[in-house]
UniProtKB/TrEMBL annotation:
Residues 17-198 form the 3-hydroxyacyl-CoA dehydrogenase NAD binding domain. Its main location: mitochondrion. It holds the Pfam family 3HCDH. It catalyses: a (3S)-3-hydroxyacyl-CoA + NAD(+) = a 3-oxoacyl-CoA + NADH + H(+). This is 5386_t:CDS:1. GO terms for molecular function: (3S)-3-hydroxyacyl-CoA dehydrogenase (NAD+) activity; NAD+ binding. InterPro entries: 3-OHacyl-CoA_DH, 3-OHacyl-CoA_DH_NAD-bd, 3HC_DH_C, 6-PGluconate_DH-like_C_sf, 6PGD_dom2, Mito_3-hydroxyacyl-CoA_DH, NAD(P)-bd_dom_sf. Pathway: Lipid metabolism; fatty acid beta-oxidation. It comes from Funneliformis mosseae (Endomycorrhizal fungus).
Amino acid sequence: LSHNFSSTTSNNNAVQNIAVFGSGLMGAGIVQVAAQNGFKVTMVDLNQEFIDRGKEIINASLKRVAKKQHKDDAAAQKSLIESTWSNIETNTDSVKGAEKADLIIEAIVENLQTKQNLFQQLDKVAKPDAIFASNTSSLPISDIAKATRRLDKFAGLHFFNPVPQMKLVEIIKTNQTSEETYNSLNDVIMKMKKSPVISIRLVERGEASIKDVDTAMKLGAGMPMGPFELCDFVGLDTLKSIVDGWRKDGKIDASLVASAKSLDNLVESGHFGKKSGKGFHSYS
Ligand code: NAI
């Protein structure tokens, strides 16, 4: 297989070649966004019919993007479309499709066994230092990673639908994902002009920052304000008395209305949110 993609960066560790498995709704979107932002991408699916469907998805979306970016400039529209396509190759052979990838993003059917089978096969043929990522929406990343022997180079990369429009990508680390892998993925997402956030659990458990949660909900769920911004806007004293009231009431599952230390501490210190100048965020 010829390597017709030239090196464009001096950083040897930087991801340049990406293989995307699955050319459906999500896969096609990921291929488009990667190619549009200068990555060399190989789109892989089971047969030519699926590949052609993926190409149609990209074509339609790319035309819309080009029109939006270069309203009255037909030449610039054409150039964006052509340069994006020049970064895309396709393959129906999973071994060949994976060979030169620095990063493999899987967006195939949502089935654990199918994903494990694919990654087990790819583990044997991909570059030893290639990073593997799954776009699964519901399966535990560590369960999928188990099928490989590169647990330090395995993570979740959760794009949102429609990929070209949604600015958020969730990077999901397992216990074994290395810092180096996380940094490389972060770098890729920034180059795709998306905003990465570490997978959301409670800020109180120290696994995500307030900014992560607010960014995720604004860019990924389309909320006009993040949940912490909204708390500050409503007033933390008001919120605390609502939650305290629910708890006393006893009608709502206690785990849902358990007191939150971070909220209680802010209120005790006189930080009531936007109206007092400080809450979860600071306001000048
Ligand atoms: P889709 O059904 O549109 O596309 C899946 C594609 O994978 C199909 O073209 C299929 O032929 C191909 N495929 C199946 N097995 C394959 C294999 N072994 N090798 C190569 N290609 C193979 O599915 P969609 O919606 O794009 O979802 C893909 C993944 O992304 C799933 O894991 C899903 O949970 C996840 N996801 C979906 C979102 C959505 O809104 N649809 C949002 C975020 C994640």
